[in-house]
Design goal:
Length: 276
Amino acid sequence: MIDSHNHTSFSEDCKIPLNEMIESAISKGIKHYTITDHLDLDYQDKRFTFSLDHQARREAIFKAQAFYKPKINIYYGLECGVQPHIIKEAEAVIQKEQFDFVIASMHTTHKKDLYTQAFYHGLKPLEAYKAYINEFAWCCEVMNEFSVVGHLDIVKRYDLSLNEVNLEDVKDEICQLLKIIIEKGKGIEINTSGFNDIFQHAFPHPTILKWYKELGGSIITLGSDAHFPEKIAQHYEEALNQIESCGFENITVFKHMKPFEIPISDVRASLKLDIL
Ligand SMILES: [Zn+2]
Ligand SMILES: [Zn+2]
């Protein structure tokens, strides 16, 4: 069992201590557990900083790695918020910390927050969708220090009118982003928190996952984006069905920024064991 996207109290928006999250992961039968707390440099909603105490966090995670071995493999990861003007600074941090895994996520566009909806003002849904994808593509073109792109189409979560956009109308932009990801040897994550909203799918939408496969994409990671213990490995059954229906046979896990694959059949088998 795998969960490659998790938060702890080192993230500004999570109150659950590291050990509590790990204990829950163990109880759910997780073997590969990646902690990806938020680092969002120059976050636009100034009520938050989304900064990290890297030293304290690194020490705590390394200690937990040793303590919980061999019950669970814990990986030192990061969810890095990307914006065009902070990429150099973010990459310096990533190189210094030598993470196992880095998710590049966009939580802002045009220097405006998605969560507070500031970004969407004055934009039609299709314009907003395209602007978000184009800025994400720009960042992925420039940035090298990441493993996968996080919750690729999360832009529709904070303004549901974007959920009405016909994906064919934004296909060119999305495929351009996917091509950059593939050419760089990076991947995309399947983020099962999508099922928590009105959406009947993980992020990204299965249509986008199909395009990724058709373009030659092969690296997909699987994560719940849990901020609470009970959310770890949420909605995996449905997510695995969608992943397999798009033609994928393996889930990728990263250690020392290097990918290794686990067959989906193995993930399914451990999921069943857990339910029993
Ligand atoms: Zn995120
Ligand atoms: Zn997250």
